[in-house]
Design goal:
By secondary structure, this protein is α+β, with helices and mostly antiparallel strands. It is built from two helices and four strands. The chain has one domain. It is 18% helix and 33% strand. The structure holds zinc ion (ZN).
Length: 66
């Protein structure tokens, strides 16, 4: 497993999410703020979560899909 820090580019898309900016969270370390295609712009996820497909949309969309 590769543990090297991953850098995502602004505008990269993962599922419904588009990377907007990198933020440093005290609890979680480097985190990315993403905008969902539904218009919600406050989705925070780590690079690994986005790249593995663990986070693909905001919580509202995730709930709507179930
Ligand atoms: Zn959404």
């Amino acid at each position: 497993m590769i543990l090297a820090p991953v850098t995502l580019e602004h505008g990269e898309r993962y599922g419904k999410l588009t990377v907007l900016e990198k933020v440093i969270s005290k609890e979680r370390g480097p985190t990315y703020k993403c905008g969902c295609s539904c218009g919600f712009k406050y989705v925070f996820a780590k690079a690994s979560e986005l790249m593995r497909g663990r986070v693909k949309s905001c919580l509202g969309c995730k709930r709507a899909q179930r």
